[in-house]
Amino acid sequence: MYEFFAESFWFWADPARAVPGAVILGTVLLWTRWRRLGRVVVTLGAVVLFAVATLPLARWLAAPLEQRYAQFDPDAVASVDGIIVLGAGAAVTSKLTAVPVAEASGERLLKLMELGERYPQAVLVFTGGGAPRSNDPRSEAEMARDDLAALHFDVTRIVLENKSLNTYENALFSKRLVKPQPGETWLLITSAIHMPRSLGAFRAEGWDVVPVPVEYLYPPGTPFLITFDPVRRFIALSRITHEWIGLLAYRVLGRSDSLFPPARAAAN
């Protein structure tokens, strides 16, 4: 039920759909007896459209999410008991096999390989049960396993959680699967923009994971630019808006223990 309402709400709330839709609606109203309202709607829509396409609004909205947690320093952690990778809700093969798909989590897998080699005793978990492509019966977790196997990574080390459909279920089902013990150190790999909601969800389940942010939309040091780039900026704004809405919804529903969880590492 949650997934149905979330997807229905997002259909109308997505800025990439809502802003152009407002311009179209305003244009239609210009030819009706509500033409005065139409002028207001089309003007506001055009102003927002131009602002998003020109100004770094997406960058400003992303900064509180992406820059909240420092990049992971392996030297600051003496030992690691496990590493969790969240699926991205889409196929994970673009950076690994050059297949151009949206929101691929290839960088997450590369980070898993890097840290997996550094911590050979760590339990590796990939969590994601969504089916990214309708013509592919594999889950996100199964796709990740196959991609890693193609890169000659030892996939026998990986525990697959392939039932979860959202971040809340990622945390819930993964904890049930691997049963982490108090005092253990677990790393959580996901995109930088998604890290606040992910940390909140895991800690709401009593699992104090250590953040390992990757896949920055705006990596630290990226310059602010004022250019006209409507397509790219609306794609970024959609992802950022989706994350802000999800962050607030999780807090209201009790699926997160904090709106902005602190980055506290587990004791070793």
Fold and architecture overview:
The structure is a single chain. With 268 residues, this protein is an alpha/beta fold. It has a domain at 74-216: 3-Layer(aba) Sandwich (Rossmann fold), CATH 3.40.50. It is 49% helix and 9% strand. It has helices at 2-13, 15-29, 35-54, 57-66, 94-97, 106-118, 140-150, 167-178, 195-204, 230-252; strands spanning 82-86, 123-127, 158-161, 186-191, 210-214. It has a five-stranded parallel sheet with strand order 3-2-1-4-5, with helices on both faces. Strand 4 (186-191), helix 9 and strand 5 form a beta-alpha-beta unit. It is elongated and about 70 Å long. The two termini are 40 Å apart. The model is unreliable at 90-103 (pLDDT under 50).
Entry summary:
This protein has ten helices and five strands. It is an alpha/beta fold. It has a domain at 74-216: Rossmann fold.
Write the layout of secondary structure elements.
Blueprint: H1 2-13, H2 15-29, H3 35-54, H4 57-66, E1 82-86, H5 94-97, H6 106-118, E2 123-127, H7 140-150, E3 158-161, H8 167-178, E4 186-191, H9 195-204, E5 210-214, H10 230-252
Parallel strand pairs: 1-2, 1-4, 2-3, 4-5
Using brief descriptors, characterize the structure shown.
268 residues; Rossmann fold; 5-stranded parallel sheet; 10 helices; elongated; alpha/beta; 5 strands
